[in-house]
Amino acid sequence: MELDYYEILEITQSADKETIKKAYRKMALKYHPDRNQGDKEAEDKFKLVNEAYEVLSDDEKRAVYDRYGKDGLKGGFGSTSGFGGFEDLGDIFSSFFGDSFGRSSRRKRANEEKFVSDLIVNLRLSFKEAIFGCKKNIDFNYKDFCKTCNGTGAKDGQMQTCPKCKGSGQVGISQGFITFAQTCPDCQGSGESIREKCSDCKGKGYQEVNDQVEINIPEGVDSGMNLRVNSKGNVGKNGSRGDLYVKIIADEDRTFIRDENDIYIEYPVFFTQAILGQSVKVPTIRGEATLNLPKGAKDGQRFVLEKEGVKDVHSSQIGNQIVQISIKFPTSLNDEQKELLEKLSESFGIKDGMHQEQKGFFEKIADWFK
Predict the structure, then answer these.
(1) Which is deepest, 37, 90, 154, 169, by most CB within 10 Å?
(2) Is 253-369 CATH 1.10.10.10?
(3) Do 145 and 194 meet the contact criterion of CB atoms below 8 Å apart?
(4) What pLDDT sits at residue 89?
(5) Which residues form the CR-type domain (predicted)?
(6) Residue 146 annotated as binding site
(7) For residues 318 and 166, which has the higher predicted lDDT (pLDDT)?
(8) Do the strands 159-161 and 192-194 form a parallel or antiparallel pair, or are they unpaired?
(9) Dihedrals phi, psi of 254, to nearest 5 degrees
(10) Weakest-pLDDT range from 39-48, 102-111, 151-160
(11) How many CB atoms lie within 10 A of CB 314?
(12) Is 165 annotated as a binding residue?
């Protein structure tokens, strides 16, 4: 059975954005390719984790997914409104009481803008660019209403009464003996349609204009954050220009794993270094740091390097780096190494393939062998 996105991230459907983000970081760390080299199952799970986060971190996609599942994200149901198929409350009233309800709201839409004034563009940053900041030139297109047709999309601005809904903005849909009123698909509820398309904008009511802007990316930005650039959005009929919102998409790194302002790394330590508690050099996002291992450090044990993480984009406080050690053992020994290890083994009291503590364990369960 296919797991749903909430099960993949091991969260409930009521989880807020912060919980979703933390769950994603945890699962991404668990199934990261560098920690599971050659593990096809982990690689597949890592892809599913990213797929789940992409949907659940986006409010619109999440709303569609919660209602229709994955099929809805393919375009089958995404356009349905939040009133069970009705465009708004006017649809509900008119479906029960006739076209007199809601018609005025349909007519009002005919003069509304064909697009919102604010504009959103995605900006992909490398792992390093997101952490340390950079300058970026962004090339994008914004919408400017067509002066030729005054934004109507019709030649000379001349509109006609919509032939499908006869100007009401609504059409009747019959289901059995009940007829429901829904927004006219031809005129989108305005009651008017284009007789002949404007030659300049091809009936869209606007033209796309290319623009460029250079922005300073501050230190510490992360995926999902938006940077606003004033007066660089779309241009409305009143001549005012909206804002440009730059949505950050930060790449992952193959070595470092970021969790908000903290950095995680799994670092190999030779078994003698762990036993003796030696100092080791550990890479950080800014260079390297010294990690003083305690004697007898354990595999998987975590250590915190303070203020070796990411600078917070709002407060400028610096996070930590968490180092999880992975103890490594030799895969082959030469004769001299083997002899030294055998002497070391004997020095710890291991004889006849058994340590004193192991002998004591057998003595505790001696009754089992009687």
Answers:
(1) 169
(2) no
(3) no
(4) 38
(5) 133-210
(6) yes
(7) 318
(8) antiparallel
(9) -80, -20
(10) 102-111
(11) 8
(12) yes
Q: Does an H or E element contain 222, and which? A: none
Residues 139-169: tens digit of each pLDDT: 999 999 888 888 888 887 788 888 888 888 8
- The tens digit of pLDDT for each residue in 56-91 reads 988 888 888 887 777 777 654 444 333 333 334 344
Taking 90 as the threshold, does the pLDDT of residue 105 lie above it? no
User: In this structure, are residues 113 and 233 in contact, taking their beta carbons and an 8 Å threshold?
Assistant: no
Specify the CATH superfamily of domain 5-73.
DnaJ domain (1.10.287.110)
Residue type, 140: F
Annotated binding-site residue? 134: no
Residue 230 contacts residue 157 (beta carbons within 8 Å) = no
Q: Which residue did the predictor score with more confidence, 156 or 108?
A: 156
The one-letter amino acid code at 190 reads S
Q: 31-68 burial by CB neighbour count: b if 16+ within 10 A, else e?
A: bbeeeeeeeeebeebbebbeebbebbeeeebbebbeee
Residue 215 half-sphere exposure, CB side, CA atoms within 13 Å? 23
Report whether 187 belongs to an annotated binding site: yes
Chain Cα centroid distance, residue 214: 25
pLDDT of residue 110: 44
Side chain identity at residue 169, one-letter code: G
CA angle 226, 228, 231 (to 5 degrees): 150
Degrees, nearest 5: CA angle 103-193-179: 45
Q: Running DSSP on this structure, what letter comes out for residue 308?
A: -
- Does the annotation flag 162 for ligand binding? yes
Whose tokens are 């004697």? That residue is 295
More confident residue, 28 or 218: 218
- The SS3 assignment for 12 reads coil
Classify residue 353 by its DSSP letter: T
Domain ranges of the chain: 5-73, 253-369
Other Cβ atoms less than 10 A from the Cβ of 110: the count is 16
